[in-house]
TrEMBL record:
This is Carbamoyltransferase HypF. One of its GO terms (molecular function) is ligase activity. The keyword ATP-binding does not apply. Pathway: Protein modification; [NiFe] hydrogenase maturation. InterPro entries: Carbamoyltrans_HypF-like (IPR051060), HypF_C (IPR041440), HypF_C_2 (IPR055128). It catalyses: C-terminal L-cysteinyl-[HypE protein] + carbamoyl phosphate + ATP + H2O = C-terminal S-carboxamide-L-cysteinyl-[HypE protein] + AMP + phosphate + diphosphate + H(+). The lineage of its organism: Bacteria, Pseudomonadati, Campylobacterota, Epsilonproteobacteria, Campylobacterales. It comes from Helicobacter pylori PZ5056. Keywords: Ligase, Metal-binding, Zinc, Zinc-finger. Gene3D superfamilies: 3.30.420.360, 3.30.420.40. Residues 18-114 form the HypF Kae1-like domain. Belongs to the carbamoyltransferase HypF family. Signal peptide: none annotated.
Amino acid sequence: RGFAPLYLTLPKRSNHPPKKILALGAEQKGHFSLLDSETSVVLLSPFCGDLSVLENEKHFKETLNFFLKTYDFKPTLLACDKHQNYTTTKMAFEFNTPLLQVQHHHAHFLASILDALLQDPHLNHPFIGIVWDGSGAYENKVYGAECFVGDFERIEEVARFEEFWLLGGQKAIKEPKRLVLEIALKHQLNKLLKRVQKHFKEDELGIFKQMHDKKIQSVATNSIGRLFDIVAFSLDLVGTISFEAESGQVLENLALQSDEIAFYPFEIKNSVVRLKEFYQAFEKDLGVLEPKRIAKKFFNSLVEIITALIAPFKGHVVVCSGGVFCNQLLCEQLAKRFKKLQREYFFHKHFPPNDSSIPVGQALMAYFNPTIIKKE
């Protein structure tokens, strides 16, 4: 996981009053960061594990106390995620210190900008950021697919993926059959519906159909991580998800065996990426095309979607953040496309694109306090 603790010197200073910022990060990737505005240095802590595990939470708190004491760091401002159930969010409210709650993907975007500027300090163009991951809290939703333009002073959302439901709540993340059922019902995909129904007991199926129809006991999402799960489950590559990025790994391994160049259609309408045509074409391929060709078409589709998202912003530097960009095949395909388009682009190099980057982005949010412009 690289050097720890990691010291990052900010290439740009804020005009705001001096602050000592403690950013507590996310959940699965237990890191915190310290930012002293007088030195403009961000410290990223060692990795402390998944904080939903009690032993890791204890280790996180011990490590945090050690660093605060060693550096005689007395925070004047705290930053944490907006996800109310994160261990770090609950921890933040235990401090008697002013608190800023940061939208998960805003943190990803700012972290990717910093990483790009550390790679090339002379960048002076605005940025367009593709933020794709599994779970990011957003107004009681679990988002994972947004597109922003801006810099340290301003963040504007310019596109996002359409929403669908996590039937029965976040347990659907571990049971992708629920995701496939939701998509089949949402887009009236009879062939896919027939395939997925056999994985449910009859009474169970009725309950989930009611959840879909009445939009109850479910959470809205648009996560790319869940899109990987839908494709992998439909190809019989995964059942119950047993570890992080399982679907991404099995799809990548399969896609590497194919030289397929086609992709699935999609629509971007009113700044929303709509996937009805994608799923209709995907459903037609099931049982017809070889799974390896379907997997490769899926990766090709992701590249085409990003190409379409960045097309209107020709003068912007492209940055990509979120756990989806830990996928090597996707990043390699994107790099080829960006070079072909002669677009300036940056992937994470100094720290990972997954939630390990969140405390860095949170600290930057608290330090620069950018203007946020939401998509209507």
